[in-house]
Amino acid sequence: MGHFGVQKTLDVLKEHFFWPKMRDDVNKICERCVTCKQAKSKSKPHGLYTPLPIPCEPWVDISMDFVLGLPRTKNGRDSVFVVVDRFSKMAHFIPCHKSDDASHIADLFFKEIVRLHGVPRTIVSDRDVKFLSHFWRVLWSKLGTKLLFSTASHPQTDGQTEVVNRTLSQLLRVVISKNLKSWESCLPFVEFAYNRSVHSATNFSPFEIVYGFNPLSPLDLVPIPIEERTSLDGKRKAELVKQLHEKVRLNIEKRTDQYMKQANKGRKRVIFEPGDWVWLHLRKERFPAKRRSKLQPRGDGPFQVLERINDNAYKLDLPGEYQVSSTFNVADLSPYDVGDDSWTNPFQGGENDGGPSNHMKDPLVIREGPITRSRAKLVNGALMSIVAEIQVKESNSIEDAHDCEHDLVAFQIPLVLSSITNGSRIALDSTDVTSLRLARTIARDFVTVASYNRVKSRVSDSYTRLNKRPLYTVKTGNAIKEEKTIGH
Q: What is the DSSP letter of 421?
């Protein structure tokens, strides 16, 4: 009735029906509705906000990113390589070219970062092609640095660097007047102003956290009394810096807890385990080809969880045709209930409320749509039960085997593969051995092959190989006007 959700569906049903636990049944049906999962966008993200571990000292744990799309300067540079210390929040803005490969970026990093602060312990970055290259991975593995990548199209993982990028763009717009191509010459002044300002998360400036004092600015050149801390001896200075770092860490923890409480309002904790089935939200930034139109499905699946990386990141068994990373944030995943057939219509007429008594006599019907692993599992299970029944009866006696043939003629397997044959109906009459062998082949192929075209060709090839003649089908669209029975 329009797939409006639980409340509106319940309102319509209450006008005509009543049964105990009505709301629970409607809620269960809506939760298992495949059409709703595919067509509707997610209203609330799953999973709680999980911050990155808080570092203990400056320039040991860093993050990096790029600001792209800037006007090309006289030196040909059109991008900024942004490197941020996750403890002190100090940032370095390094001009570069968008076309620079991983070796050039590594050279810039050693010249501008390692020269001043040493080799970091961890590097947080997105999945830029430069950071995923073999050269970049081998370089840092030899140096002992651990690379931490965010999930694709999920910038919230490294929100700190994204905020710095936004602040850098704002500062450049403030400093630059009409000559937009002069941004490169303004970068040193912008960087100094950023690192000299007090950060909201630490309550100290990045300069003070790293060096123990703030460098002189034009205001400091005015003759005023110098602070005591600038004239401390070495021992007292080291103690002061140690106390300063402890205060910074406490301030970061306090601000992180405040943000977690605010971000987790209205969210619920969802945990998936390996082997669970989930629906995948087709985020436009990550699946542009599947979101070209507003009327295209917003979700796909179900897909099986292969690995639980942490509470917020999971690796899925994703077909290669998607050509994206198989690691997804929990915000893009929804639980899939495999306890019932979500493709069937629970309100269809002409059925007994107590359930069908001749369930095994019903033909195996697959609705048109994408071939998913869960549907393949259902097909395989149904066909294997048929094959097992035949094998048991054949092992008893020849008469039982003959009776089994008549039973199979009565309910035929007929195997209706509308999704494989584009609306055609294939009836497999299992009165002979070849049709039974074909049923086994189809069942095996359904599990091992997930691609639509490959399954279709494998079915046709299997029948041709077994019966020494091509597979005949009649395409009739939605209505079945005629069918060719195989085996006669």
A: T
What is the C-alpha to C-alpha distance for residues 296 and 332, in angstroms, rounded to an integer?
Answer: 17
Q: What does each of the 488 residues of the chain score in pLDDT, given as a tens digit?
A: 567 778 888 888 887 788 888 888 888 887 777 777 666 666 566 667 777 888 889 999 999 999 998 999 998 999 999 999 999 999 999 999 999 999 999 999 999 999 999 999 999 988 888 888 999 999 999 999 999 888 766 666 667 888 888 889 888 888 887 788 889 988 999 999 899 988 888 889 999 999 888 888 777 666 655 555 555 566 676 777 778 888 888 888 888 787 777 777 777 788 888 888 888 877 766 676 666 666 777 777 788 888 888 888 888 888 777 777 788 888 888 887 765 444 444 444 444 444 444 444 444 444 544 556 666 666 666 666 655 655 555 455 444 444 444 444 333 333 434 334 333 334 444 444 455 555 555 544 444 444 444 545 555 565 555 555 554 443 333 333 333 333 33
- Using alpha carbons, select from 389, 385, 381, 380 the residue that is nearest to residue 455: 380
Find the largest Cα–Cα distance for the chain: 112
Phi-psi category of residue 47: left, alpha or beta, with phi > 0 → left and psi -120 to 50 → alpha: left
% helix, strand, coil for the chain, step of 5 = 45, 15, 45
For 389, other C-beta atoms within 10 Å of its C-beta total: 14
* Distance, CA of 361 to CA of 446 (rounded, Å): 21
